[in-house]
Amino acid sequence: MPIRELGYLAIEATDIDAWGRFAQDVLGLSVAPGPEGGIRLKMDERDFRLEVVSGKSNRLVAGGWGVGSKEEFEAMREQLNKAGFEMQQGSAKQAQARMVQELFSVIDPEGARQEIFWGPIAAHSKFVSPMGVRFVTGDMGLGHIVVPAMNFEPTHAFWSKGMGFGLSDILNLHLTPDTTQHIYFMHCNSRQHSIAIAQVPSPAACHHIMLEVASLDDVGMTLDRVREHNVPLVQTLGRHVNDEMVSFYVEAPGGIVFEIGCGGLVKQWEGHTVFETTRGSHWGHHWVPRQ
Question: Residue 123: how many CA atoms within 13 Å on its side-chain side?
Fold first, then answer.
C-alpha cells in the first residue's frame, strides 16, 4: 500500500496560548511559532507533527498522510481517481507551509480534508522534550487518530479502496438490542492501527488523537502532570484488547481528546486474521463524569 504513515495533523483552536501550555507542560511536546500566529508541536526529528492554527472553532482541520516517493505519490493519485474520489492539487505555497515536496487533498465522505504528501522537509534536529518524554514515531508515524464515520460504508470504502488501508480488527458496540455502533481499526504500517473510523458523532471531526510514549513511566508521569495542571481526564488508565496499549485519555483546550499510551503492538500483517472483539479494554478506561 502506498500510504506509509500519519505524518502530521492540522488543528484549529480558539486559544493558542492554552494549547501551547497544554502541549508543553502536560504532553511534553516542544512548542515553536507557526505561520500566522499559530504554533507547531515537535515530538521527534521532524520539525513538527502537529500544527495548531488560530480560528473560531476547535477541530481537526486536516490529516497528512505520507508516501515514500514521487512515484508512490502519483500512484496514490491514480488509485483515488479510479475509486471515484476528486482531488485538488496543493500549491507550492501550501506544500511549503506543510514542509513537504508536494501534496494534494481529498475530501472524505464525512467532509474532512485528507492530505497526501511525499518528501517531508526537516532540519532533523534532535527532539528534547521539556518534560523528558520519549515518543514512539519513526516508520510508524506520529500515532493514530479516530474519526467519526456516520456515513459508515462510504467512509470505509474511502479508507480501504481509496486510501488503501488494511483492516486490523472490528469493535461493534451493542448499545441497545436495535442499535450497534461500528468501529473499524485500520493500518498502513506496522502500527496496529493508524486510523479508526467510528460510528460516533464528533463536532471536532476527531474522536481522539493517540500519541505513543516509550515507557509506562512516561505514561504515569504524564498522568501526574494532568492532575497537577487540573486538565480534564476523559478516561482512566486502562489496557486495550486490540493493540494491548496501556493508556489514558485527556482533554486538550477546546475539547479535542488525546490518548497517551505505551506498549502498542508492532504487527507483521502477512497472514493476519481480522477479528472482532466484544469489548474495548481488558481493564480500566472508565469514563470520568464531567464536572
Answer: 6
Q: Which of 158, 147, 257, 241 is nearest to 197 (CA)?
A: 147
Q: Which residues pair with 198 in a beta bridge?
A: 148, 183
Closest CA to 38 of 21, 17, 59: 17
Q: How many CB atoms neighbour CB 91 within 10 A?
A: 11
Cα dihedral 229/254/135/277 (nearest 10): 110
| C-alpha span between 206 and 200 (Å, rounded) | 10
Distant-in-sequence, close-in-space partners of 227: CB < 8 Å, separation ≥ 6? 233
The C-alpha cell of 79 is what? 488509485
Quick one: 107 exposed, middle or buried, by C-beta within 10 A (0-12, 13-18, 19+)? Answer: middle
- pLDDT tens profile 239-276: 999 999 999 999 999 999 999 999 999 999 999 999 99
Lookup: cell for 201: 458523532
59-67 vs 39-42, strand pairing mode:
unpaired
Reduce the DSSP state of residue 82 to 3 states and report it: helix
| Among 78, 150, 151, 85, CA closest to 113 | 85
Model confidence pTM above 0.70? yes
Residues 187/168, Cβ–Cβ less than 8 Å: yes
**121: nearest Cα among 1, 7, 38:** 7
Can you tell me the distance from the alpha carbon of 44 to that of 66, in angstroms, rounded to the nearest whole number? 16
Pick left, alpha or beta for residue 285 (phi over 0 → left; psi -120 to 50 → alpha; otherwise beta).
left
Alpha helices in 41-90 (DSSP H): 70-82
CA 259 from centroid of its chain's CA atoms: 10
Rounded Cα gap, residues 185 and 104, in angstroms: 24
Q: What per-residue confidence (pLDDT) applies to 1?
A: 63
Q: What is the mean pLDDT of the chain?
A: 96
